[in-house]
Known about the structure:
The radius of gyration is 16 Å and the shape is globular. Helix content is 4%, strand content 43%. It is mainly beta. The relative contact order is 0.24. The strands form two sheets. It has a seven-stranded antiparallel sheet, with no helix packed on it. The protein has one domain (20-208): Jelly Rolls. The chain starts with 19 loop residues before the first strand and ends in a 5-residue tail after the last strand.
Amino acid sequence: MVRYLEIKHDVSVRITERSPGLSWQMILRIRKLPEVRRQYISDTGSLNASRVSVYVSPENALTFALIDAAGECYSVVVPLGEHGISVEQFIYLGFEIGTGSHTFMRILSGGKEIARNDIPFRVDPGPLDMTDGIIGADISGQKGGAFDLVAIWGYNSTLTSDDFDTLTSRLDKPVTVFVRFNGNQWMRREHDKNLRQDDPVHAPTYQTIPPSN
C-alpha cells in the first residue's frame, strides 16, 4: 500500500499569471467499479448548462468536462492505467479552466500538465461556484465513482507555479486518513467549504492507514 504521496512539480515551465476561471486540486486514489457507466468524482453546476464535471468514462478514461452557459460541451480526456493516470495509488491531480481572451482546459498530475484542450475563443462558463457541488456522484446524487479522497480544494481562478508550490509544500507527508467512496456514497460541498452528507445510507466512510513499523 502506498503510504507517502510524492509530488514532483514540473519546474521546467513556470506559470506566472492566474487566469479567470476555476481550479480543482485533489489528492485521491482512483479505484475501479465493475459497472460500465460514468463514475463521477465531482460535479458542480446545473444539469444542462454551467456545469463542470470530473468522472471516469465507460471507456475507462478520466474525463474533465465543461458545459458552458449556452449548453455547449468541451472536455479533456486521459486514459487510466499503464499509459495514463495511475489507479490504486494516491496521486495529486489538478483540473483547471482558464477563460481569458481564449479558453483552455487542462489536467495536471503532480503539477505537470498531462492533457490540454485549447479553444480559440472565450467560452462563457456561466455562474460557476467552486464552493458548491457534489463529491462522489453527479449533481443528482447518482452515478457515483469509487475512490479514496485525502483532500480537495476549489478556486475561482487557475493557479500559478508559486500557488502550486505553496500548496504542495504542506503535502509531502504520509497519507494516514482518507474518505472512501464506493459508488453510491457522496457528499455536498457547502459554501463554508465543508463536505456534508446527513443521510447515513449515502455517507462515505473514513478510513485510516496504520503507521508502518
